Every structure is written in C-alpha cells, then in structure tokens.
Prior knowledge:
The complex is a heterotrimer.
Chain A: E1 6-7, E2 12-15, E3 20-22, E4 26-29, E5 32-35, E6 39-46, E7 49-56, E8 69-77, E9 81-89, E10 92-103, H1 117-120, E11 126-130
Chain B: E1 26-30, E2 38-44, E3 47-58, E4 72-79, H1 95-109, E5 120-130, H2 135-150, E6 159-166, E7 170-173, H3 177-182, E8 186-192, E9 197-204, H4 209-245
Parallel strand pairs in B: 4-5
Antiparallel strand pairs in B: 1-2, 2-3, 3-5, 6-7, 6-8, 8-9
Chain C: H1 5-16, E1 32-36, E2 44-50, E3 53-64, E4 75-82, H2 96-109, E5 122-124, E6 128-140, H3 145-159, E7 161-163, E8 165-171, E9 174-179, E10 186-188, E11 196-203, E12 206-209, H4 213-218, E13 221-228, E14 231-238, H5 245-272
Parallel strand pairs in C: 4-6
Antiparallel strand pairs in C: 1-2, 2-3, 3-6, 5-6, 7-10, 8-9, 11-12, 11-13, 13-14
Amino acid sequence: MTELRICLPGQRLCLSDKVYTSGQGTYERQGYIYSQLTGCLDIVEKDNVKVVEVHSSGEQTVVPGQGDIITAQVYIITQQYAKCNIKCVGDTVLRRPFRAVLRREDVRATEKDRVEIYKSFRPGDIILARVAERSITD
Amino acid sequence: MSRNRDLLSKIGLRLDGRRPDELRRIRCKLGVFTEPDGSAYLEQGLTKVLAAVYGPHQVRGGRSKAQHDTAIINCQFSMAVFSTTDRKKRPRGDRKSTELSMHLQQALEAVIKSELYPWSQIDVYVEVLHADGGIYTACVNAATLALIDAGIPLKEYVCACTASLANNDVPMIDISHQEEIIGGPTLTVAALPMSGKIVLMEMSQRFHMDHLEKVLNKALQGCKDIRQILDEAVRLHVRDIGSSTGWANTS
Amino acid sequence: MSLCEAEKTFVLHGVEENFRLDGREREDYRPMELETDIVLHAFGSARLRLANTDVLVAVKIEIDVPFPERSKEGKLEFFVDCSANATPDFEGRGGEDLAVEIANTLSSAYRSKHAFDLTKLCILKGKKCWKVYVDILLLECGGNLFDAVSLAVKAALWNTQVPKVHGVNIDGNNIELNVSEELYDCDRLDVKNAPVMVTVCKIGEKCIVDPSVAEEQCSVGSIVVAVSGDKFSTVLQTGTGSLHPATLMESLKLGHRVAQRLDEALWATLRQIKPGQDVGFLK
C-alpha cells in the first residue's frame, strides 16, 4: 500500500464490482474504473468496500459548489445585497477569486426583514459563509 | 501527373527520409511557464507549439454565458507572426484561426469532465511558434499535455494525427508542410486512442472511398503511437515533480 | 493582483532601507537568461527571460522601395503581440493597448540616426532597400516589460544576418538584385548604439529599477528611459502620477547609470554565445 503507483488520465485501474467502487479522481465506464487525474493511486477501506481514489500531486482544482463553506471578502454593499470575492473554499485557497452575492434575507436567521446591510458588513470585511442553492439567475 | 519530386521514392522513403508509417520526432515539456495553471511545449518535427491552460475560474464576460451544469471551454488558436516562411500580417482573428479554435474546442470538449465544474470556465490558449505542417494536430497534443499539467480531470488523452495517400496506393502518416503542398489529399483525425473513438475528422481534396478506410486506420494507429509518447513524457514529468515535492498531499 | 495598504507600506519601507521584497538593492536587476537563434525561419531571433517575464523576438527582412523623401534609408518596423498565454485578459484584442504602446516606444527610440543607422539598409538609392520587421511575442508578463523587450530586440538585431547583395541588373524600370545564395555570406547589423530601455519607478522618496508586479502597483510615478551610447534616445512617462522636476532629473541620471551597466552586461553575454548551442523551451 505504501508503494508509489503513478496513474495517468484514462488509465484503466480495475474492475468495478462489489469489492471496488470509484471514488474521488476516478470514473466508471462499461464496468471498469478509470483514472481522471495524474497522481497517486490510493485504496481506502470504507464500510467493507474498497474505494479507489487518485490524489493529484499538485494543487487541487476546486470550484465552489452548493453547500461548501467559503471564506470571502466583501467589496461592494447596497441596500439589498453585498457582493463578495470568494478567496477560499474550505481549506483550499483559490488562485483566482470567484464572485458571489450575499442577499439581505440570508444575512441572519432571525428578523430577516429588519436587516440593514451597512450595519452588518463594510467593504473589506472577511466573512465565512455557506454556498446556497444555485439558480439560473445567480 | 509529372511532379518534380515524388512523395514516395522508389525505395519507399519520403521527402525527409521517413518511411510511410513513421511519425516525426516528438519532443515535449510540461510546466514551461509559471503564470498559467498548466502549460506545455511540444515539437513535432519542425512544428513548435506552446499551450497554456487557465482554469477553472469564474466565467468572464457576463453571467449570461455561464451554464448551470457544465464548465465552458474557451479556446484560442494563434499563430506567431514569424511562424510561417512568409510573414503573417495578423496573429489571430482571421477565418482560419477562428475555425481552428472551434475545432480545438470540439476536440477538448469530448475529454474534459466539464460536469464537475458548473458555472465556471476553462481557457485553453495555443500559440504556434513555427509552422511546418500538422499544426492542428500539434496543437491538440500540446493542449492535452497542458490540461494534464493543470490537473483538470480528463476522461483520457486526446491525440491527433494527419494521414495522406501517396502514389494513389500507400498511406502515409504525419504530413509535413512540403508534402501537404506537393501532395494529395490530407486527412486530419483527432481521436481518443484508448477507447478508439474519433472526435474530429477533416479532409481536404478528395480520394476514392476504397482508400478511405486504410488511411483512417493508419491515422488512428498514429494517434495510438502519439499517445504512447505523450504518456512516457507525462510519467517522467510526474516522477520528477513528485519526488521533489515529496508527495506531500497523499497519505 | 491588488495589494492592501499594509502590503504597500511594507514594500515602501523595504525600498527606503535598500532591501526590497526579494532582497535586491534599489539598482539591482533580477536574474536574466538570454538565448539567440531560436526561430529557424527568421534571419535573427532572441529569447529573454527576466524572472517571470518571457519575451521572444524574431527579425525578418524583405526587399522594399524606400520612402521618396528618405531615398537613402531602409525601413524598420516593430510589431508587438501580447499572447494570451501571459494572462487571459490578452485574449482576442485585449492586449492591443499595451502592444501598441510598446511598439510606439520602440519606434521612437530607434528613430534617431545615432541609435540605428538606416542608411546601412539601403541597397540602391531611391529604388531598393531592406525592410526589417522586428516581431515581438510576449509570452509571460512578470513586471518590467519595456526593459526585457528592448534587451531582447537588441540581441535579436545583433543576431540578424542580412544577405549580401552581389550585383544589380538594371533593365529600364526592371531592377533585379543578385542576392548571395550562400548561407554564411552575410552582413551583421551594427547595433553598438542600439537603445537599451530602463524603467525607473518612484516609490515613496526613492527610485528603483526593474520593478516586479507588486512594486509596479506601489509606485507613485514611473518613467521609461531609452539610452543609446551615452545619449538619451527617448523618455516616456507611464501610468498615472506626476513627478517633480528634481525627481525627474534624478531618475534620468539613475536610468542612465543603470543602462550603461545593462549594456555592458548584454555585450558580455552576447560575446559568450557560441553558434550551435542547444537552446529553446525544452531545456
């Protein structure tokens, strides 16, 4: 297990059956598990099933998705919302910022209609938030 | 038809001394630049190509272009002004560059797992430094390497190869510029070598239906060989990088 | 990249104490790599790598008709292309403003007879001359573009081989030139006085040369000085911000001093270049 096995995109790893399932960095096609990334092969035991994963040796390419905890910096505020730049997703620092909008109703859980944005945030503030459901008008 | 030089001499050698099913020498290097997320340099014979990948990042140019279930792949093909024998006036923006950009996008969309990155954009920029035939194929191969260097998940490699027919009989692969001008029809194929699927096929001039299959098979074989070569290069690169960073992220 | 106030103050203090972010002194340059003979199709070429800035220059020559009012001179034209490899903002026509600025600065720097003698490019007065196209490709931008471009252009022009013209056949209005077919029967261009550009940035009270991307953001004002021999060829002020005349004179003197050193270093490197070395991106 400690032996270093390098795998490349498109490399066939093993059969996909009850013993092995595909995990992060792999995908399944026609009954076999293939690698998606360049990196190290890892087999993790979970609930009696071996999950095949590939860990990239470089930086993770990560994009903020629904439900992620993000760290963002506010840069514009209006009465209805605050626009921010997402700097980190979880523990990973992003190379380039993603833009996000924090709406008035989402600032706190209670007294949602009595929120005043400028009393809660100013441009330059760092906030910790969770990504809500994405909509087409996002 | 009498020509000054035959594409295939009597002893079966081509204009540059290769045999009909021999590829030109391919040399490549990953990670040439620091600013892009992934970059690669590829030489196929005398054709030299640089590729850079940025992404995935926020969609530039308005939210309306963003898609909710997939990443947008944006390609730009550009030829340096000094890349051809006669100096080009503009590096990009002409019809040929726009067409090749679209073809590149078509080839890459087939392999990038874009459903993993909704609402974002992946940029692929290709710059041709020296054009000597097979520029589209060199660009596709270089773009594949750059995507691997950037760590973007791919289904597998996408490789491209050109093929042609000499003396109406013998199929040749990896056509150089001279052979393109003097010679007959050229077939450009971009394929996924492992699954054997064809992503893009383009043909110039014409040849008989009977010959199509054998020229196509030769081109697909060429793609498989190119994949071997690229694979070796990526393994070498990963081993170098991995040993110097000590595989810090893995258990 | 945008810096916050604290980072800008940090850079400022570093400059005042003569110890910049990467440990350099105010008049030090970052390490540079120079290669020539990279582009095979071209008559001369060079590639310069100044820390993160990467510039590739190729020189092509054509036969052309001289301008009627300058019948004894050849032509020199600069073209700059900002490749999208450097940053996604340069996609399509995004990099054109920067490209035009650099090309115009180079043209005005090379305009003087003292800097580059165009009469050497003349073949037949009023009828035929050489037109030199200098094509610059910016592959990566890491601050201080003008210096890198001017050094690469000078090295490429030094590397250029102009084929010799052995004879001329004049037949009424038809002129045929007998250009030498030999590969090595060429002239070299005289680039002894070709201008070298130096970017001088004022940060706080002091001036520095060779700013990195972070330092360019903190500068109050910056000027680009083109020095050829021991004369100034062109002076350009870039960016927003104004300079006091006393500061301007000081910056010019600093630019002049540094340009002489840069020029010497460039010649020392060019003399060391042996033909047939393995160069290119593969190394």
